[in-house]
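Here is one record:
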Amino acid sequence: MNECISLKVDDNNSKYIKYQRSYPFLYATNIDGVGSVLFKMTDFHPKKVKQSYDEFTEYVVLTCLNALKISNQNGWGKIRIYVNLNNCSIQNFSLKMFKHFNNLTANSFPDTLETCFICSTTKLFKLLWGLVYKIIDKDTRTKFKLVDDFSHLFEMYKLN
């Protein structure tokens, strides 16, 4: 088992907050009593993240744990993910990183994803979805939903 999986958000609060400052494009928040992960892809730069890959991997796990903690506190055992692809370019995407984080979260948090909402008004999503769709297991594919613009969520639930 990956050693970062055993981390607890409470025990690593200062580390988690430090990571939030380093990676403000990804964070957990409470949306209507459900732990939700917000991922603003326009601010994600794979080449920069690659320089601190292990640290970012740990932050992804801590973010999911935090979202799950929020859900559990509200009697809900699942999390939601909101991915905003608006205004993204191919420079904001890495198939290798997607595979890594898809496997990491699928194995570390089985049966915890309720829905992954993807917002895209660009052609990039259609291009990427053809690649990504094949990587995601069949049961999880049905949990992915393409939705209209939800950029307002990133304003309403900003990090302080």
User: Anything to note?
Assistant: The radius of gyration is 15 Å. The mean pLDDT is 85. The chain has one domain: 30-156. The beta strands are 26-31, 34-40, 79-84, 113-119, 144-147.
